[in-house]
């Protein structure tokens, strides 16, 4: 059987930056609570976590890049909500946010848990922020945690 290498869900001495948007805050706050709960359940303390707030999802990449390049964090988590409206604004904001964060993760080598909801309507957003579709903030935090540990194992 081949050797399998994967990350674990233990926070130990890892440092996390969580970047949240203020736009759609009533959806983003439950995402943040989910992310914090997930990290704490896996051993992170409040001293290991910093929360940075930005105006909206389009503003996220510039701040996430600065945090990734600072090397203060082993993992970052991006939390926000972009809800489709009646104009193409959604496509630009969601697309630029996602591609910017992916590019930063690749260039910096710092994992970024992607918890930016991109939904058709507010009901879908609420469902994914702790409603019947789970909490995507918790999922993003756990993905970032696992990736940080996997990167350590590969070094």
Describe this structure in words.
There is one protein chain. With 155 residues, this protein is an alpha/beta fold. The chain has one domain (26-43, 55-146): Lumazine/riboflavin synthase (Rossmann fold), CATH 3.40.50.960. The protein is 48% helix and 22% strand. The protein has five helices and six strands. A four-stranded parallel beta sheet has the order 2-1-3-4, with helices on both faces. It has a two-stranded antiparallel sheet with strand order 5-6. It is globular. The two termini are 23 Å apart. The mean pLDDT is 96.
Summarize the structure.
The protein is 48% helix and 22% strand. The protein is α/β, with parallel strands linked by helices.
């Amino acid at each position: 059987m081949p050797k399998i290498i994967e990350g674990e869900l233990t926070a130990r001495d890892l440092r996390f930056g969580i970047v949240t948007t203020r736009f759609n805050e009533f959806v983003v706050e439950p995402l943040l609570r989910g992310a914090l709960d997930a990290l704490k359940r896996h051993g992170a303390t409040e001293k290991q976590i910093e929360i940075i707030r930005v105006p909206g999802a389009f503003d996220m990449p510039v701040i996430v890049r600065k945090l990734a390049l600072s090397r203060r964090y082993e993992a970052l988590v991006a939390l926000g909500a972009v809800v489709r409206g009646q104009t193409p604004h959604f496509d630009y904001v969601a697309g630029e946010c996602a591609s910017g964060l992916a590019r930063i993760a690749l260039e910096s080598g710092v994992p970024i848990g992607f918890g930016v909801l991109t939904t058709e309507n507010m009901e879908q957003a609420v469902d994914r922020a702790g409603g019947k579709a789970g909490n995507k903030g918790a999922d993003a935090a756990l993905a970032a945690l696992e990736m940080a540990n996997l990167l350590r194992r590969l070094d």
